[in-house]
Structure formats: structure tokens, C-alpha cells
Amino acid sequence: MPGEGERPAARVEPLRKARPCPECGRPSVREHYPFCSSRCRDVDLNRWLSGAYAIPVADDETKPDDDE
Q: Is the pLDDT at 62 greater than 80, yes or no?
């Protein structure tokens, strides 16, 4: 039982679920979430900025062309 003026220790839940780093698989850290380090975060940013990540686009052949 806490003494006078003392408060019981609060149980703090993490804000985000722990998950492995998407670059290297090591556990993520709060400062660089969801990455494990600033290096992995920068590697991912470089891939986005250089266009390595892209959403593939396929023409839908079932749609009629506007030309006809």
C-alpha cells in the first residue's frame, strides 16, 4: 500500500503494436516506428523518392474504349 502522498505506479500501454522492421526484420523502436533505426527509415524513404515503390497499373480490357 502506498504511503501518504505516494501514488500507485501507473501501467502504461504502448501506443502502437510492436512489429518487426519492414527493412531488416529486427524489432521496431518507438523513435523510428515502424523501423528499428534511422538507417532503415532512410533506406525506405530513398526507395519511395527514387520511384522503386510503385503501384502496378493494368489496363482493364473489359471496358469499352472511348475511341469507338
A: no
